[in-house]
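Case study 2.
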Amino acid sequence: MTNPHIGNTGVNIDDEESIKCFLAGLIIRSLSISTSNYRCTESLSDYLSKRNIMGIYDVDTRAITRRLREDGSLIGVLSTEESKTDEQLLEMSRTWDIVGVDLISSVSCKKSYEWVEKTGFEWYFNSSRSRNETFHVVAYDFGIKHNILRRLASYGCKITVVPSTWPATETLKMNPDGVLFSNGPGDPSAVPYAVETVKEIIGKVPIFGICMGHQLLGQALGGKTYKMKFGHHGGNHPVRNIRNGSVEISAQNHNYAVDPKSLPSGVEVTHVNLNDGSCAGLAFPQQKLVSLQYHPEASPGPHDSDLGAC
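Prediction:
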């Protein structure tokens, strides 16, 4: 965390966006000694310890940020084993890499299920909802956030969530009105089975991709993805909608991007990240396909692009 003071609002289960916390470790500068929020149910330290997640504080996170700003993303190691030497820890960092590692299989659901929960009334921020028509959406879970499902349900969708390895043939048997390929962690090139699934569905059913889903669509269309020097993380990334010229402040969390120059003719870049010019959205009207690199339902984060999700 680059913000120096963490933990003062505590934690509450209502804000969790997945079936469990998949965090491997947390590094902060200053840990709040008390919590002060009416929704708080436990402290940050209690939350992490109950889930056996490592955390460390009193670290100069600004110094780390300055280093990453110059060198790009780097591999680090957290360990509770005091017997390990500095050289052993360095060797651990040298022998691990995010490139080529399948991270979505460990965060995906294990079997299909129906999602029915909608956004709570107190959290509505877009009143132009239409519930007159129900669409059946099959959502591939690559690490999907629950608020994506809540927003779709609030717009009148019947949702079937399926694992990352769910066969395309089974999806097409359901005869859905659309297929969502969700957000998820890691390298899209490390999950060729997911790319093949996307290829088998393109052109047969309308498709919407978010984050990892966007990158998989780029590869399935014949394009290439690449690891960014600086990944996009957090809730303050400006994105320009090329079609209407508007600018949205978006929530993002990814280390890879689609190379627009590698895409075939007919594929349109619809959104651009204004910080670095990277591709933030695609459309292929002939194939009834759209995708976004950021999180349009933005939970947590800004609500500028909620309309784009629905």
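The chain is about 20% helix and 25% strand.
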